[in-house]
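Sat 14:20. Reprocessing the chain from the morning session after the first attempt stalled halfway. Input below, unchanged.
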Amino acid sequence: MELRKGIKLLRGSPNTLIAGRYVDPGQPAERAAEIVAEVGNTPVVLLTHFHADHLTATPEDAEVYAPWGEELFVSSVKARLFFTHGVYMENAVYKGNDLKVAGLVKPGDRVGPFEVVPLPGHTFGHVGFYAEGILYAGNALFGRNTACPTSWTSTRFWRR
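Finished this time. Tokens:
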């Protein structure tokens, strides 16, 4: 579904935003093929946070950018599960894979068309990605409102 020229939304759990790079590949792992078909063989992945349901479909050889402070949990299944559940469980439903982190994003950074926006709460380093009037908020908002056109630049919530 095209939200704006050059910005698409792939519906899923969670939704995936594509604008040259893509945000939160989601799950299941088989979704990776759909993402590669949209963006090519070596996609750039931007993660809003470290939870496995947002990174399980990361294609092999993807260039992965994690929120600053959450890179350990993106790069290590064991650390991710232990931090999330207090115990490592080999048969966890959502666990993803160990991912090589190519770089970090932090609030105020620009990555391609996106401005990185702080949205802590769901996780300590949770970020959103803002471009062309669209805020992709990961799990800061749930349901159909996870990616929504917005004019928040004029509200108290959004200050530049």
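The chain has a mean pLDDT of 83.
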